[in-house]
Amino acid sequence: MNKHQSTENIKSGFPWLIMILMSSVTFVGLLSELMPSGILPQIMADLDINEVQGGNLVGYYAIASAIFAIPLISMTMSFNRKNLLLILLAGFSGSNIIAGMSSDYTVIVILRVIGGICAGVMWPMIAAYGMRLVDEAYHGKAIAVIMAGSTLGISIGMPIVTVIGNDYGWRTEFIALGVFIALIAVIGAFALPSTPGEKLTASSSPFSLLKIPAVWIVLLLTLLGVSAHYGVYVFITSLVDEIQLAGGTEWALILFGVGSLISVLLAVKYTDHYLRLLTVAMFGLLIASMGLLLVFGGMRGVAHFAFFLWGLSFGPLVTLFQAAVSKQVESAKDVATSVQSSTFNLSIMIAASVAGLLLGVYSPMSLTWFAIALALPGLIISFFAKKTLD
């Protein structure tokens, strides 16, 4: 696509190829964050570090994303969207390639923080960028397609890069991902439309957005939904071992992934028209899946179905909340989604900490109670939040 092609021409239809290209960005963004998880023992052995230091390779990345999202999105509001995305892709690519070549743990941590900073800007800006390329009636669809990449990253990408890491070494895994991201950047340089930034004003600042009651409702739903899901997901292996699921974690993740993919497709089609219904269904399916695990966790077949239902609930998580917060503002959607994105990342850290404390005292089944306790108020709030979600 010629960089001078007008956005108005693109808006005449739904630009599937461009949206799929943007989806590939969230795909590699997710992999860049979680990739060390699958091959931590390898990394720890090679760098001679302990488990805490190994876990920090993911933790520091997430913390950097949460801390830097709002200030950097505000600072880069005036940047051309295409140029900003290409800079971020260069940061992702370079940080992964250099980390794969480094033998110094401190250097790798710094590179992971750089990757986290890029992610903190990328997640909120790419959704807003995509919305600018389509008519308002397709905003939810654009977010759903773009964010589908993150779901595919969990369900398909992580197993692939983990196999690469196990067969060819963690360094090859890092470098391969970096090269793949560079390839996406090259394609993006030719295919993505050039879109100007916006001027940040007092009325579009993060503090101004937080004066809108509906934004707080969306942030509360984000906190409840993300904490409920990730409190269990982070320790899915412990839960699978507790109920002795036939097929183990591999089958749990496969069924979870299939459910996620199906719900992502549903979100692509229906988010624009049924946002509140989908949000209510997301919380309801989470409660149902956790209830099945709690009551019938040891029963073959039922437990497998529960993981499938959980995946159905999990798939549209990012899409629904980003679409919801975007509906609350007319301009500066990047800032609005950055506030939501920071809440999302903060919720993951809170969920992992609380769930870890619960596991230190109770059995892994306590995590299902934790999820239900958070999802119930989420279900009630989303059901009655007609002005916010409709």
TrEMBL record:
<protein>
    <submittedName>
        <fullName>MFS transporter</fullName>
    </submittedName>
</protein>
<feature type="transmembrane region" description="Helical">
    <location>
        <begin position="107"/>
        <end position="130"/>
    </location>
</feature>
<feature type="transmembrane region" description="Helical">
    <location>
        <begin position="84"/>
        <end position="101"/>
    </location>
</feature>
<dbReference type="Pfam" id="PF07690">
    <property type="entry name" value="MFS_1"/>
</dbReference>
<feature type="transmembrane region" description="Helical">
    <location>
        <begin position="275"/>
        <end position="296"/>
    </location>
</feature>
<keyword id="KW-1133">Transmembrane helix</keyword>
<keyword id="KW-0472">Membrane</keyword>
<dbReference type="GO" id="GO:0005886">
    <property type="term" value="C:plasma membrane"/>
</dbReference>
<feature type="transmembrane region" description="Helical">
    <location>
        <begin position="142"/>
        <end position="162"/>
    </location>
</feature>
<feature type="transmembrane region" description="Helical">
    <location>
        <begin position="58"/>
        <end position="77"/>
    </location>
</feature>
<feature type="transmembrane region" description="Helical">
    <location>
        <begin position="174"/>
        <end position="193"/>
    </location>
</feature>
<dbReference type="InterPro" id="IPR036259">
    <property type="entry name" value="MFS_trans_sf"/>
</dbReference>
<dbReference type="InterPro" id="IPR020846">
    <property type="entry name" value="MFS_dom"/>
</dbReference>
<keyword id="KW-1003">Cell membrane</keyword>
<dbReference type="InterPro" id="IPR011701">
    <property type="entry name" value="MFS"/>
</dbReference>
<dbReference type="GO" id="GO:0022857">
    <property type="term" value="F:transmembrane transporter activity"/>
</dbReference>
<keyword id="KW-0812">Transmembrane</keyword>
<feature type="transmembrane region" description="Helical">
    <location>
        <begin position="342"/>
        <end position="361"/>
    </location>
</feature>
<feature type="transmembrane region" description="Helical">
    <location>
        <begin position="214"/>
        <end position="236"/>
    </location>
</feature>
<dbReference type="InterPro" id="IPR050189">
    <property type="entry name" value="MFS_Efflux_Transporters"/>
</dbReference>
<feature type="transmembrane region" description="Helical">
    <location>
        <begin position="251"/>
        <end position="268"/>
    </location>
</feature>
<feature type="transmembrane region" description="Helical">
    <location>
        <begin position="302"/>
        <end position="321"/>
    </location>
</feature>
<feature type="transmembrane region" description="Helical">
    <location>
        <begin position="12"/>
        <end position="31"/>
    </location>
</feature>
<feature type="domain" description="Major facilitator superfamily (MFS) profile">
    <location>
        <begin position="17"/>
        <end position="390"/>
    </location>
</feature>
<feature type="transmembrane region" description="Helical">
    <location>
        <begin position="367"/>
        <end position="385"/>
    </location>
</feature>
